[in-house]
Design goal:
There is one protein chain. The chain is an all-alpha fold. It has a single domain, classed as MetI-like (MetI-like fold), CATH 1.10.3720.10. Helices cover 78% and strands 0% of the residues. The longest helix has 37 residues. The chain is globular. The model has no long low-confidence stretch (mean pLDDT 86). This is ABC transporter permease. One of its GO terms (biological process) is transmembrane transport.
Length: 235
């Protein structure tokens, strides 16, 4: 086991020197995470809005299901995607297992319920405020959904942020479907788990520092964006 002080010093040296292995892992992590969150938002935002303003049989059950899926165990999602993409599975012919695409699929499945559930709550509150006005204007259901999504765009950044945080921290599902293959599917969380188990703390600490800094930067950026939007709204 390395000395902690030496490990931290080496970790900062790896970051300062833009170590090639460190940068490759970070780059793949960001590509997989942002791709998954974009897919989840493309599905979850309209789905959550439709659940907020729609009135149809089974809506209450669907709302409960989406809320329950927010707590999906990552390893269960990983197992389900593995079974779908394995050579004996229905999508095995696509040969996506142990690729970044498989990791994106797993993360998108995990993040979509989070985005949808949080969007539903935001849009439902906003719909209660503007329902009479939209009805008086003769706005269609889809028009209402589009209008409310646009009006709540800054509030919905919270939903996207929650999904991004879940995806960045994910390890179980991506380990199963990605295999943690060096230079192919090794991302920050899986690399941290592997390097720590090996007792090689420098790379694990370097990746951990980057992961925490990314989380802080994303939160700070979104808070700044929301405050700017609020100032513009009241200007």
């Amino acid at each position: 086991m390395q000395d902690f002080g030496a490990a931290f010093a080496e970790a900062f040296a790896l970051i300062a020197g833009l170590d090639a292995e460190l940068m490759a892992i970070i780059g793949l992590s960001l590509r997989v995470t942002f791709s998954a969150v974009l897919i989840a938002c493309a599905i979850g935002l309209p789905l959550g809005a439709l659940l907020a303003v729609g009135r149809f049989p089974g809506r209450a059950a669907l709302v409960v299901l989406v809320s329950a899926l927010m707590g999906l165990p990552p390893v269960v999602v990983g197992l389900a995607v593995y079974l779908l993409l394995s050579s004996a599975g229905p999508l095995g012919v696509l040969q996506l297992l142990y690729t970044p695409t498989a990791m994106i699929i797993a993360q998108a499945i995990l993040v979509t319920p989070i985005v949808a559930a949080l969007t539903r709550q935001v849009i439902e509150d906003l719909h209660g405020e503007y329902d009479e006005l939209l009805r008086s204007l003769g706005t269609s259901r889809l028009g209402t959904v589009a209008t409310l999504l646009w009006d709540a765009r800054y509030s919905l950044l919270t939903a996207a942020l929650a999904g991004l945080g879940r995806a960045l921290a994910e390890v179980g599902a991506v380990m199963i479907v990605g295999g943690n293959i060096n230079h192919v599917t090794r991302v920050m969380t899986t690399a941290i788990a592997l390097e720590t188990s090996k007792g090689e703390l420098a790379l694990a600490l370097g990746l951990g520092i980057i992961l925490v800094c990314l989380s802080i930067l994303i939160n700070a950026g979104l808070m700044g964006l929301r405050r700017t939007a609020e100032r513009m709204a009241y200007a």
